[in-house]
Amino acid sequence: MQFLFAILLSLASLHPVHFSFTNVEYNEKDKAIEVISRISYEDINSEIERLHNIDLKLGTANEHYEADEYITQWFTSVFTLNVDNKEIASKDFKLVSRNIENHEMHLIFKVKADYPQQLKIKNTILTEKNHGQSNLMIVKFKQFIDSYELTKTNHTVSVTL
Q1: Partners of 79 in the beta sheet?
Q2: Which of 17, 37, 70, 89 is 20 to 30 Å from the Cα of 4, by its Cα?
Q3: Distance of CA 37 to CAs 64, 95, 98, Å?
Q4: In terms of C-beta density within 10 A (0-12 exposed, 13-18 middle, 19 or more buried), how is residue 61 classed?
Q5: What is the predicted pLDDT for the residue at 12?
Q6: Structure confidence at residue 133 (pLDDT)
């Protein structure tokens, strides 16, 4: 029995684990909602290549000159934000920073907004690509802080602040 358990445990470790991490916070100084995500840059590159038939060559000297636009377009198709019952348009997500570290792309978007009373967030980052994808998210606004695990079937949260 112990031998069978050891085999099952070793087989389970061969299955890749897929996570993204996203923080959603309010920046009082900038009067903006900040969305900060860490996602595998290889997965971002392959998803954009699948959708647009273009290799962005992220993180290389030959990176595509419109990489920021493609990344923003992709991100806002898998991460939507509704503030006080108003859907935030893709064009209102401003990519203010991105870098690659340890196979992760760190993305920071800002959305200009007054301090909200309600948020509705849909996060389907890579849920179509990766079986078992989990998107871990922390929402932090003043004294409100909560964490969520979003998946292919449970991908939306509503928050009253």
Answers
A1: 123
A2: 17
A3: 21, 11, 9
A4: exposed
A5: 46
A6: 80
Residue 143: phi, psi to the nearest 5? -85, -10
Tell me how far apart the alpha carbons of residues 70 and 62 are, in angstroms, rounded to a whole number.
15
Secondary structure of residue 20 in the 3-state scheme: strand
DSSP code, position 70: H
DSSP state string for 92-143: G-EEEEEEEETTEEEEEEEEE-PPPSEEEEEE-TTTTTSTT-EEEEEEEETT
pTM of the entire structure? Answer: 0.86
3-state secondary structure at position 31: coil
CA quadruple 124, 15, 44, 20: dihedral, nearest 10: 50
Local mean pLDDT, 10-residue blocks, the chain (161 residues): 47 59 96 96 91 92 95 96 96 96 94 96 84 88 93 91 92
Sign of CA dihedral 26, 111, 100, 47: positive
**How far apart are the C-alpha atoms of 92 and 62, rounded to whole Å?**
28
